[in-house]
From TrEMBL:
This is Major facilitator superfamily (MFS) profile domain-containing protein. Its main location: membrane. The keyword Magnesium does not apply. Keywords: Membrane, Transmembrane, Transmembrane helix, Transport. One of its GO terms (cellular component) is membrane.
């Protein structure tokens, strides 16, 4: 930082301030907008909050009903084996994320943060829905593993949060990401526990003969996928942050 010597008011100005912007660079336009825009970007923050919550909901939403799901899929030969098979399904999501998180970070640096967010939400919409419709153990294991492989937004969303606002609001942006993830990890299991097996819990509303009776774990997955659709639509209001070097 340097001193502004023009008026003697002692204001500090950045020494490495960008002086040239590429005309076709969305990231340059975003930087230029941040320089002139004052105040908190509430729209972008709200959209990022929704995107992060919806992408976090599937992480733990299955655990309240996972034992019963494995039991109903009849993969375990005896009751004592249910936990063994449930462990693989529960771990498959995080295994997928561990394998591809670095790759998604590279993709976000090369092609922008927003495409990674969109891919993650599309994966939640499709694969989480298919998980609720699982008719076999291997289908459940595969859909959860693929969902983890395609959920690469944890790193990019933090970088994106600091790019869509002025530097003085970056701490607020990062705190919103942390709080939204915490909310998703709380609400996800609540949705799973409350809405699983609806035909048994709420026979007056759901029939055993229809889809929610034949697929007792579909309703919580469907609700999360619907929320993810809303988050995907909200991405329309998120600017592209890819920078031309």
């Amino acid at each position: 930082m340097g001193k502004d010597g023009g008026g003697g008011d002692g204001l500090e100005v950045p020494l490495l301030k960008r002086t040239y912007y590429h005309g076709n660079c969305p990231g340059c336009r975003l930087e230029k907008r941040n320089e002139t825009r004052r105040g908190v970007p509430y729209t972008e923050f709200a959209c990022m909050w929704l995107v992060t919550v919806c992408s976090t909901l599937p992480i733990q939403s299955l655990f309240p009903f996972l034992y019963f799901m494995i039991r109903d899929l009849h993969i375990a030969k005896q009751v004592e084996d249910i936990g063994f098979y449930a462990g693989f399904v529960g771990a498959s999501y995080m295994l997928g994320r561990a394998l591809t998180s670095t790759l998604w970070g590279i993709v976000a640096d090369k092609h922008g943060r927003k495409p990674v967010l969109v891919v993650t939400l599309i994966a939640v919409i499709t694969l989480n829905t298919l998980f609720g419709l699982s008719s076999s153990y291997w289908m459940a294991l595969t859909t959860r593993g693929l969902l983890g492989l395609l959920s690469g937004m944890l790193g990019p969303i933090k970088a994106y949060a600091t790019e869509v606002c002025r530097k003085e609001y970056s701490h607020l942006a990062l705190s919103l990401i942390s709080s939204s993830r915490a909310i998703g990890l709380i609400v996800g299991p609540a949705i799973g526990g409350y809405l699983a097996q609806p035909a048994d819990k709420y026979p007056g509303m759901f029939s055993q003969e229809y889809i929610f009776g034949r697929f007792p774990y579909f309703l919580p997955c469907l609700c999360i996928s619907i929320l993810a659709v809303a988050a995907l639509i909200s991405c329309i209001w998120l600017p592209v942050s890819f920078l031309v070097p």
